[in-house]
Write a structure and sequence with these properties.
The chain is of the alpha/beta class and 394 residues long. Helices cover 43% and strands 19% of the residues. It is built from 12 helices and 12 strands. The strands form 2 sheets. The protein has a 6-stranded antiparallel sheet, sandwiched between helices.
Amino acid sequence: MLSEQSAATVRATLPAVGAAIGEITERFYARLFAAHPDLLRDLFNRGNQASGAQKQALAGSIAAFATHLLEHPDSRPDAMLGRIAHKHASLGVAPEHYPIVHEHLFAAIAEILGDAVTPEVAAAWTEVYWLMANALIAIEKRLYEESGTTAGRPWEVVERVEETADVVTFRLRPADGGPVRDFRAGQYVSVQVELPDGARQIRQYSLSGAPGEDVRQFSVKRVSGDGAPDGEVSNHLHGRVRVGDVLDLSEPYGDLVLGDTAARPLLLASAGIGVTPMVAMLAALAAENHDAPVTVVHGDRSPADHALRNDHEAYAAKLADASVHFFYERDAEPGTRTGLVDLGDLDVPAGTRAYLCGPLPFMRAVRTQLIGKGVAPADIHYEVFGPDLWLAQG
């Protein structure tokens, strides 16, 4: 809980800080990477830094946390904190990183806001920062304890499957021959690769295989920049990684998991490469003999672009009560639909719990349609690949 004195100061200064937060985070990252270039080389996503996505996510999360403290002083925004903590744990973020962030973030605030940062203002925002940081440290500690490690592990590629022209699936086993820890459908792993310039960049990929297997499986879409630089890691994995190569993988993390699904109608909606966690969820539901209704929705550019389509259909076919609706922008086949995903004429049973994964415009549209059909907002869960700009935007 924020102290009364600090709450008053934060409330008074939040408009000014909020208006300048974009400049503050830009200055923060410039300072941070000048002092610690290894963090940009080996921890932070260089693509997200170049695009500005990470700056937007950080700015939004700080503003959202401060706003929550003012509007709900007796609670914490645990959904936001949990999502951030899972991502941090997959990257190996440690408690000692937080003082470094504090040093450069508050130096950036002082540089941008100048004389407006009085000792009282600095103390109040320091309190906000450490409330957020200590909450994250505690959640990350629990996640590390559950996984049994903070480190990655070498895994050998044992199979490579070309799913589409732009998506490849990798199947890996532990290089040390040790056991494979199970995961919850919907979770992801961090994959670290060494690039030609020596940087060891990390990306997260949803596990697309069935839980309980003795391999890890993830599927990677090649990222084309469309005027910006192409995705460094996705193109490296597509172009260079073959059977017999070894990759460093984290333990599974992520909070988009099924939870207690007994007797609950479910809706799994995806678009593009967002299909990956949904296929794992369908596999888990099939293994559990889930018998309540399951509505499967997917949108893609064409059937040829629909990665993991065979698995998508096969796992759904194993369920007692599943309906499948595929939407393609072009080349739609009999039994599928042409155009963008539209839930207008779909039956969504009362009490449905929904899981979404795909581009933000897709998820916003589907969420709006679900709420219009009576689905409770608390029953709509989502996964964003990359910085969570949806969460940061409130």
